[in-house]
Design a protein that fits this description.
The complex is a heterodimer of chains A (267) and B (258).
Chain A: H1 2-16, H2 19-23, H3 26-38, H4 50-63, H5 65-97, H6 99-114, H7 121-128, H8 132-157, H9 160-168, H10 173-211, H11 216-226, H12 229-262
Chain B: E1 10-21, E2 26-38, E3 43-47, H1 54-62, E4 69-74, E5 77-78, E6 86-89, H2 101-105, H3 107-111, H4 116-129, H5 145-157, E7 163-167, H6 175-192, E8 195-200, H7 203-209, E9 212-217, E10 220-226, H8 235-238, H9 242-257
Parallel strand pairs in B: 3-8, 3-9, 6-7, 7-8
Antiparallel strand pairs in B: 1-2, 1-4, 4-5, 9-10
Classes of the chains: A mainly alpha (267), B alpha/beta (258).
Chain lengths: 267, 258
């Protein structure tokens, strides 16, 4: 009975404050972390506790360092992703629509996909130095491939009957692309964007560690130099939290309003 | 394009279709030699076993597939690719999932360049033909299969096509819904008299709906049979009707001999 009551209380709580459902799974994790540090299983200098990280968050935010670095990282990712989307979706459409373009571009695409983002860093450093250009290029490169590949896949997954229906209702070929192909490919494009942003975010941190003079990646690596483990941990917490926010505040609502609403993606 | 249907005849002359089958590694002839004249306002059923070439024929009339030989004309004008003069109703319904029911029906008028308000109005007018004006704001996946195909039919009609091509449109709905849809279609046809070419493998369906039943076999016309039954046609009456039973038996024996 008590269990049932607790369960119904939990359900009502979640219905009222959905954020509870997000935070709850982390509670045992943080408790375990606190216990490990409290009993000094590892020396404090190597593994600070949750409170230390929260304190560091307070100080760094107060000094404005954290907010500035966070802004730098997010803006870099946003700019890189925007450029990647602007190139990736049209290219994916072309490849998906035309067998000729596909045959011409595909092998090259696979070749360059294999040269992972970071593998470009040495040559980009030679060409552009430790600059914003280098970082942006890496992100664009990383975001681009998942979007191109998934977009072209999505284009091909649109059923022939939908093409035919639009044409026999008087749509021009260009109109079919806009009215049928693009919305039909949207669930795949979203998958590509989700993957691309995920990869791009990781590539950004790695690039900032090597190239950066600011940003979350730089903050973490700089903290290592200064021997401040607490700032490294803070950086990791920020990375995880930020991705969760992007996913649930930006990507998931778009998917709910499109593919899921239309019945293209199962709930 | 006005609200009425102008005089248009569809003429299919010695049409054939041969294509290369990469799996068999050889040319396959789906349609050998079909000639058919469809008069304005006629309701024709094309019936035959699978592989008789009926869907290939429809796809050529719709302009989805090029013809290998012969000609297909609408009033002496050869057809070139798909066009709004030939409306198509698909077995898969082929409604745009990302458009509301109203936007689906108004799609043809919008492609003609009519203003949005007018398209919405046309959509509602045509949806009311099948009693679905109340779902105009819903998305197709929120409707039952029978409702979706009603939308599919009026979407094609809303464009005032010269010919309405229907490719086994009721094959994927349940038996009871199918009977209702068949009765509704004959009612709409009587009220608006569009020219309809209806592809099916269901013999009673072909007889119930049409003025003429064309039996296809191995890519040729085997039989072209007039159906003289009273309209309006209702299943409750026809199911016991001797003329209907006799005609169905006649068509069935032709199809089975095919």
């Amino acid at each position: 009975m008590i269990f049932l009551k607790a369960w119904s209380f939990y359900l009502r709580l979640v219905a009222k404050f959905p954020i509870v459902q997000t935070i709850l799974p982390f509670v045992p994790l943080v408790i375990a972390w606190a216990l490990v540090t409290e009993y000094e299983v590892f020396p404090r200098a190597f593994l600070p506790g949750p409170m230390d990280v929260i304190n560091a968050f307070g100080t760094l935010t107060y000094k404005g360092v954290l907010t500035q670095y966070l802004e730098d990282s997010v803006v870099r990712l946003a700019v890189g992703a925007a450029v990647g989307v602007a190139i990736g979706i049209p290219l994916g459409l072309l490849i998906g629509l035309s067998d000729r373009v596909r045959e011409a571009v595909w092998p090259v695409l696979l070749f360059f996909q294999a040269i992972g983002d970071i593998a470009w860093l040495p040559i980009l450093l030679v060409w552009f130095g430790f600059s914003l250009t280098t970082m942006t290029l890496i992100i664009v490169y990383t975001v681009l491939f998942p979007i191109v590949l998934n977009t072209s896949l999505g284009v091909r997954s649109v059923s022939t009957d939908l093409h035919r229906a639009a044409l026999s209702l008087g749509a021009s070929k260009l109109r079919v692309v806009w009215e049928v192909v693009l919305p039909g490919a949207l669930p795949n494009i979203m998958t590509g964007l989700r993957n691309g942003l995920g990869y791009g975010w990781r590539a950004l941190i790695a690039t900032e560690i090597i190239v950066g003079t600011s940003g979350i990646g730089f903050m973490m690596f700089d903290a290592r130099r200064a021997g401040s483990v607490v700032e490294i941990l803070l950086g990791m917490v920020v990375l995880g939290t930020l991705w969760y926010v992007v996913d649930s505040w930006v990507l998931a609502p778009i998917e709910r309003a499109t593919g899921k609403r239309w019945g293209l993606v199962t709930q | 394009m006005g609200s009425g249907y102008s005089m248009k005849n569809l003429t299919i002359q010695n049409v054939s279709k041969t294509y290369f089958d990469p799996y068999a590694g050889a040319n396959v002839t789906a349609v050998h030699d079909i000639s058919l004249k469809v008069n304005q306002g006629e309701f024709i059923s094309i019936v035959g076993p699978s592989g008789c070439g009926k869907t290939t024929l429809l796809n050529m009339i719709a302009g989805f597939l090029p013809i290998s030989g012969g000609s297909i004309n609408i009033d002496d004008k050869p057809i070139k690719g798909p066009g709004a003069d030939r409306g198509v109703v698909f077995q898969t319904f082929a409604l745009f999932p990302w458009k509301t029911v109203g936007e689906n029906v108004g799609f043809g008028p919008r492609m003609r360049g009519l203003p949005k308000k007018e398209c919405d109005q046309i959509a509602l007018e045509f949806l009311s033909l099948v009693g679905l004006e109340h779902v105009a704001q819903k998305y197709p996946n929120e409707l039952s299969g029978g409702m979706q195909q009603r939308v599919g039919v009026v979407r094609a009609l809303a464009n005032n096509p010269d010919v309405l091509l229907m490719d086994e449109p009721f094959a994927s709905v349940d038996a009871q819904t199918r009977m209702t849809l068949q009765e509704e279609l004959t009612k709409i046809w009587q009220a608006r008299r569009p020219t309809i070419l209806f592809i099916t493998h269901d013999v009673p369906e072909s007889v119930f709906l049409a003025d003429r039943v064309v039996v296809l076999s191995k890519g040729r016309v085997l039989e072209d049979m007039p159906i003289q039954l009273q309209r309006p046609r209702v299943w409750d009456q026809l199911i016991e009707d001797d003329t209907f039973k006799g005609l169905s038996a006649q068509v069935l024996s032709k199809v089975r001999s095919a």
